[in-house]
Amino acid sequence: MIMAQQADRRFPNPWHDKPLRWPDRFVEDPDHRRAVKLWVWCEAKGESFRDVCGRRGLPYTSALRHRQAAMQRITMLLNLERSLERDSNLVV
Q: pTM (2 decimals)?
């Protein structure tokens, strides 16, 4: 997601936007989605996640928990999606 955020939009790549849509696609909780998007932006721009959270009035520890929950959900659903595409059956 970070590399997709850093990509130069002048040179379109059909795959570079796909990771940026993962939070909207896989994360239902708006607080989780907001935290992971903010974290990705901070990582891509070289900003401090803690400082940006402070400027926006978001408790840093809560933002970390929300980000972690979002990343776990995205990872789980991407793995499930890939498993279903590859094997056509549910893997637990």
A: 0.75
Question: Does the structure show a pLDDT above 60 at 74?
Answer: yes
pLDDT, one tens digit per residue, over 51-73 is: 999 999 999 999 999 999 999 99
Is the sign of the CA dihedral 45, 49, 52, 58 positive or negative?
positive
Give the span between the Cα atoms of 65 and 71, in whole angstroms.
10
- Rounded Cα–Cα distance for residues 32 and 7 (Å): 24
Residue 66 DSSP SS3: helix
Alpha helices in the chain (DSSP H): 2-6, 18-26, 30-45, 49-56, 60-87
